[in-house]
Amino acid sequence: MNQFTSPATRTNSPAGERAGAHTSAHRSARGSAAGVPGREQSGDNGGPVAPGREEVVTQLTPLADEPHEIARVIDQLIHRGWLRTDAGQRLQLTDAGEAARARLRELATELRGVVHEGISDEEYVAALKVLRRMVANVEGVQSS
């Protein structure tokens, strides 16, 4: 678990487990500090303060495969018209970006339904527990 994990992911409930990934992505896409802790204060319009480009790059780069991947993705989203920067250089989701976020959420929900078909909540939770234990085992070996 890391600082970008949503509270729903921290539960042992299947609904929480299944909802966690899209909840974190939803927070990021909505511009609510891209999951950056401590940035939930209100902005001028009463909504959350959007993060700046460098803040997002700094916070998310450790999760990326390559050092410049996050900066490239931000540039691509700006070029596509899904993100913009405001006068304060904070990243803002555009109307087109919001539409894309909503569509991606629909697609993720549909895909989750396909992936979890025929799997009971109990089986799902058991599988997650086994996978988490396997990750913990590997992390323990790596730190030795």
Rg over C-alpha atoms, rounded to the nearest angstrom: 17 Å
| SSE pattern, N- to C-terminal | HHHEEHH
Distance between the termini: 20 Å
Spatial shape: extended
Describe this structure in words.
With 144 residues, the chain is mostly helical. Helix content is 55%, strand content 4%. It contains five helices and two strands. The chain has helices spanning 14-29, 53-60, 69-80, 95-115, 121-142; strands spanning 83-85, 91-93. It has a two-stranded antiparallel sheet. β1 and β2 form a beta hairpin. α1 (14-29) runs antiparallel to α4. The longest helix has 22 residues, at 121-142.
Q: In short, what is this structure?
A:
Helices cover 55% and strands 4% of the residues. By secondary structure, the protein is mainly alpha-helical.
SSE map:
Layout: H1 14-29, H2 53-60, H3 69-80, E1 83-85, E2 91-93, H4 95-115, H5 121-142
What features would you highlight for this structure?
144 residues, two-stranded antiparallel ribbon, 5 helices, 55% helix, disordered N terminus
